[in-house]
Design brief:
The chain has 231 residues and is an alpha/beta fold. The chain has six helices and ten strands, in the order E-E-E-H-E-H-E-E-H-E-E-H-H-E-H-E. The chain has helices at residues 49-57, 75-87, 104-108, 137-157, 163-169, 181-186, and strands spanning 16-17, 26-31, 36-45, 63-73, 91-94, 99-100, 113-116, 121-124, 177-178, 191-192. The strands form two sheets. A seven-stranded mixed sheet has the order 1-2-3-4-5-7-10. A three-stranded mixed sheet has the order 6-8-9. Helix 1 (49-57) runs parallel beside helix 2.
């Protein structure tokens, strides 16, 4: 089990900035000891951010805590980030004064231990097409159904109560469902991640080179036999 010391709430002052590309998250990294490291992600989640995080998580022998302050962004990129966080046994936190909203929740729930501070916010709403990017109605229906299935599978694989997703899907894009502490605990959005009751159904999809499991299969390589699955 990963323990989050009080110092996590003030570590942001000690984080070092990393180079960033246009429209990507702002990444910062810091350490509090020889065995614990903090990765801060703030801003909008866009293409390439999952790859950046994967590299930052690939430091052997260090316990990593990913600190979020994001209003959301790409749904698929956020899910990929969440899967890599879980594969790395990292923890996630939304500190006081920070928010993890919209697609950000999909990355946050990847934490093996998840913390939302008393004055932090975790929430989401219905996903939607950016202005001018919506496909025709038939394509939109098909893609929306596939995306809903992927998000539900993501919640289930990470041990989150799917009832949380029903509240998210009932919240219009111009509104935000921010979960109070009571529901964060009830839906297992915070706390120690429980072991899944049964292995998830192996989905189809793209695979990393050298990894026999699809990218969307969170519990890939549980015995550590395929390093390529972990990035």
């Amino acid at each position: 089990m990963i323990k989050l010391p009080r110092i996590v709430l003030t570590t942001l002052l000690l984080l070092q900035s990393l180079p960033q590309t246009a429209l990507s998250l702002d990444w910062k990294v810091g350490e509090t000891s020889s065995s614990q490291r903090f990765v801060s992600a703030s801003g909008t989640i866009n293409g390439g951010d999952a790859q950046t995080l994967r590299k930052l998580l690939a430091s052997p022998g260090k316990t990593t805590v990913v600190v979020f302050n994001s209003l959301g962004g790409s749904v698929t990129e956020a899910m990929e980030m969440g899967r890599d966080i879980r594969r790395s046994n990292a923890a996630t936190i939304v500190p006081n004064g920070s928010r993890c909203l919209s697609a950000c929740i999909l990355a946050f729930i990847g934490g093996e231990v998840r913390v939302v501070s008393e004055k932090g916010q975790l929430g989401s709403h219905q996903f939607y097409w950016p202005e001018g990017e919506a496909p025709n109605s038939a394509q939109a229906t098909q893609i929306s159904q596939s995306m809903s299935s992927a998000v539900l599978r993501h919640f289930l694989a990470l041990g989150i109560d799917p009832e949380a997703l029903t509240l998210i899907m009932d919240t219009p894009p111009d509104d935000m469902k921010v979960f109070p502490q009571e529901l964060l605990e009830r839906f297992k959005l915070t706390g120690q991640s429980p072991l899944p009751a049964r292995p998830p159904v192996l989905p189809h999809g793209a695979k990393r080179e050298g990894c026999p499991f699809p990218e969307s299969y969170v519990n890939s390589d549980p015995l550590g036999l395929y390093p390529a699955c972990r990035g």
